[in-house]
């Protein structure tokens, strides 16, 4: 773009060029719409315009409004993935975004998911609930087998 103006007999010219960036799109998918508290949420997505190593920001917004920000980088095909274990029950949102580059504008996409509370005894045991359950089954089966051997027939 260029233009000239005349003021008091003097010619003043300006030349400028503008380069616009193309729009971009980003997709985001979740492993589940509902997960249990402490379980892993798998976030995947793709940035079609990307090359390998592009930084993607994943903002996980809790029911209270606090944000956990995680960053991942794209693979050669523009795909990205992450695993996150939300620790609070309620409605969450995860937003994937990128800033763009010299050729493409930035973009973002969001998905919502729900985290359900664990029963009190499971919360108290944390990740050990399955182990405790398995040990309880082994103890009960051992007790029954020993009791059957001691009982005369």
Give the overall shape, derived from the CA principal axes.
rod-shaped
Mean pLDDT: 86
Query: Main sheet: which strands, in order across?
Result: 4-10-9-6-7
- Runs with pLDDT <50, length 5+? none
Strand content: 35-45%
Helix content: 10-25%
- Main β sheet profile: 5 strands, mixed
Question: What is the alpha-carbon Rg in Å?
Answer: 29 Å
Class from helix and strand fractions: alpha+beta
Give a count of the beta strands, DSSP E runs of length 2 or more: 10
Task: Please name the defining characteristics of this protein.
single chain; 153 residues; alpha+beta; five-stranded mixed beta sheet; 10 strands
